[in-house]
Amino acid sequence: MISEPELVGGAPFETAEVLTEDREPRPPRGRGPSWAWALGGALVASALWGAGLYAYGLGQRDEGVDLGGYKPVEELCEKAELKGLAMVLGERAMSGPGPFLDEPALSESSCHVNFGEGEREQSASVTYTLHKETDPGVEFAAHAKYRELILPVAGVGEQAFFGDRGEDGGSLWVLDGQAVVQIEVHRNYYADENGEPLDGAPDLSGIDVPLTQDVLALLAELKK
């Protein structure tokens, strides 16, 4: 019979000592890999940065465009006295307001005025547009050229152009900040019962001088 060496003559295994030996404690586990902390920090920083930009954007929008003291005006006929034109065309006879537009992007009002009486009666119109969001100066000169207002006028607003129609009148268009004002004089022709033109209508050559006086007065009035 063959005996098992470990039971008969072999050296015994020291299993008891191995099983009872105290094991060295393992180091404490970390809370997670370092890349997770870095990613979390980056996400928090990104969120804070985005929130800061959003708040900054809200603040910028709240400030809005600087209107330079101009404000919407519904009763433009009350603001436009047109004393310069009255000196040339005769006493102001009547006036009537046009439609009034007041929206977040812009406001616009107008006024129609008659001067003199009979065959000397002449007409003028005033338009006031206030741009509340966009800059009208970018396209102002281009629009003036399109309207055949090609004569620059110095000392009136930021930019001003006059369209000369000789004895038939003229138009002055002015940009001042966000405000655009136009005053235009139209010559009225009258005829008798036979259709013949009546004499007596004033010559409107040189109307740019009283127009300039009146638009300066109106710009100041619109800021009150």
Structure characteristics:
single chain, alpha+beta, disordered N terminus, 224 residues
Catalogue the unreliable spans.
1-21, 35-39, 53-62
Task: Give the N-to-C terminal Cα separation.
Answer: 127 Å
Counting DSSP H or I runs of 4 or more residues, the number of helices is 7
Calculate the mean pLDDT score and round it: 80
For the sheet with most strands, the description reads: 8 strands, antiparallel
SSE topology string: HHHHHEEEEHEEEEH
Tell me the helix content. 25-40%
Compute the CA-based radius of gyration. Answer: 43 Å
Number of strands: 8
**Strand composition percent:** 15-25%
Structural class: alpha+beta
Bulk shape: globular
What does this structure look like?
By secondary structure, the chain is α+β, with helices and mostly antiparallel strands. The protein has a domain at 76-222. Helix content is 34%, strand content 23%. The protein has 7 helices and 8 strands. Strands 1, 2, 3, 4, 5, 6, 7 and 8 form an 8-stranded antiparallel beta sheet that branches. Helix 5 (83-89) runs antiparallel to helix 7. The longest helix has 30 residues, at 34-63. It starts with a helix and ends with a helix.
Compact summary:
The chain is of the alpha+beta class and 224 residues long.
Question: What is the element layout, followed by pairings?
Answer:
Layout lengths: L4 H4 L6 H6 L13 H30 L12 H4 L3 H7 L2 E6 L3 E2 L3 E10 L6 E10 L5 H10 L4 E2 L6 E6 L4 E8 L2 E8 L21 H15 L2
Antiparallel strand pairs: 1-3, 2-3, 3-4, 4-8, 5-6, 6-7, 7-8
Helix pairs in contact: 5-7
